[in-house]
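Journal club prep — side note

Before the paper discussion, L.F. wants everyone to see what a predicted structure for a comparable chain looks like in token form. Sequence:
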Amino acid sequence: FLGFIPLAAGAELITVFGVVNKASGIYGLLSIFTGHPITAAQLVLNIVSLLLLPVFLYALHNVRRQNALPVVAFSYIYFVDMLTNLAFTIYFSVTWFRVFEVTAATEAGKDTSSSLDTASERGLSITIIVLVLLFKVYFCFALFGYARMLVRKAGLRADNGEGKFTRQLQFIMLAIAPSFWRRGGRRAGKGRMVNTLEEGIEMY
């Protein structure tokens, strides 16, 4: 993880970051009682964060104990959560840039020297947003890499689960891209996208 941290420690660190991020939803909801303005989208995001907080806390416990199947489930949840956050980030960014452009245009009409500062601030904002999104994608890859390591270590397959519910859950999760989860190298029948995904996750 990051080239110098063990993958297990990296997965735990990612989960801790996730717990802190979800816990921040508490402060978002508290703003309702303090009279701070909050949009419907922000309210939904804060509620979702609080609902996922117990899931992330439970995942942190299983990541530390290296429980393969719960970590696999958490990897999928983290992936869906990443896509959800991506959608909200794009929405908030577009909304913010629209307000920013209107404000900047008003100020530029009064002071022409502010146009360069406006362009610089907008460029910095875009750079930060892109970097945050790239880190989220990287974290997602790292979690799947850690989950695959635990699956191989535990010898789990889509067809060897124990207990009715566990067997069904294990089948569903490991039947998705089975060549990714099972032990072994490339196979001739794999698609290029699957090979690229596996090579990318091996790096983490």
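L.F.'s comment for the group: Residues 185-200 have pLDDT under 50 and may be disordered. Keep this in mind when we get to the figures.
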